[in-house]
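Researcher: Next entry in the queue.
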Amino acid sequence: MHRYPSQLIRPSTLALSLLLVLQIAATGTPPAKVASDSLWLAGYGRSLAGETISYHSSHPRANSALIVRADASSAAMEWETAAVPDSLDSSRVVFVWLAGMATGKGSHSFKMFVDGREAFTLTTSAEASPSNREFFGPDGSSLIFQTALIDQFQELFGTMRLTLPASTCKPGKPLTIRIQGPSAGSPDWIMAFQHRLQERTEVEAEQALTRQAGALYQLVHLEVEHLGPQAEAEVSASGASTLKARVEPGFNSYSLPIKAVAAPTVVNLSLRFGGNPAATIPLELKPVARRELYLLPHSHNDIGYSDLQVNVEKDQWRYLEEGMALAKKTANYPPEARFKWNVEVLWPVESYLAQASESQRRDFVDAVKNGWVGLEGFLGDELTGLCPPEELVQLTECGRRLARQYGLPPIITAMISDVPGASWSIVPALALAGVKYFSSGPNYVPFLPDRGDRIGFTLKS
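Model: Structure for this entry, 461 residues:
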């Protein structure tokens, strides 16, 4: 990955920002300062007080945050911004930092203090909502939270933008920002991520191909960390279509397709802003290593965890029927585009066949024989470390019985999902049952800071 870091700067447009980034990389000295109505600075510089937490944000590399909760009146978080320049000739100063706000935990009021004075009352949303949050002060100041990511819990992540009259800022000094939580006995929260934003462009050629109009293209991934106002940008390269994008304050990510190369090739990425040339970034493209990827559509059986057992069972029956219908519908598609449903464990198949009509059972048998439905060898997702040897052998008995009863092909695959791994003793048990392939899908949860807490150090290098 090619990185182009810069000092904190005051851009009037993204063109100036990225041009400065590239000029510093090339010459080591920034160009002359350009006057602007607003000075943009990093809203986070260093932490002073408060609870810290590892958590995801709208930036893939910002995963450590200060957090304040609405559970006790003494709870607070405090940090310093970047320092204001000694020479200040702008009418306003804008401080930007990465932030997060909870939703759906009741509407609670948090007090924000700037250099010791109460500046804003921040209220969280009573209901899950993607709306931006705006707060205004009596002196013309404003605080705007702009949502960039809504996670699986419907919590909001993005940038917090504090705009102050320049007269309220001390030249050569950072601001001190403190957010105080209410004593509401609630898990409601606000986060400030410990990541100092700066102008940075990162470019990486991904090992991926895409087909467009019959031609193969490689994907070039661009990440822009922007500390400035919203701007329009264009990126293009030889053999590529032009990417037109809006760049927001904070983190931005884009993909640009470039015609696939057969040998290492240097391409020049041209950046334009407002129709004007801004910079050129050289990038070496290497041929993409060709790999075959297989997608395995299936549904995990969480019995009693996601719903009551009887409801999970009926859901699994419905998934099976919908999977068979999709497979039949796509049977005449090209081989790589045909749908196939995979049954993770045989518990729902056994109960489905027990209550199915004769025609439903016939449809199921035909679907398996046609390759529309794949059957896995285990009756359920077991904690194999708790099973004695005989029980491990019996885990595959249901599959062998179904094959005998309905004249199905032998089941040679098995999978365990969500359960944290499998004991080595499962290997000889599967071999005795004629199962050749085993898929293990332990609790890998990429959106959590520890990537899931039940697989030990499997993912640690």
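Model: Helices lie at 14-27, 309-329, 347-355, 358-369, 389-394, 397-406, 426-432.
Researcher: Noted, moving on.
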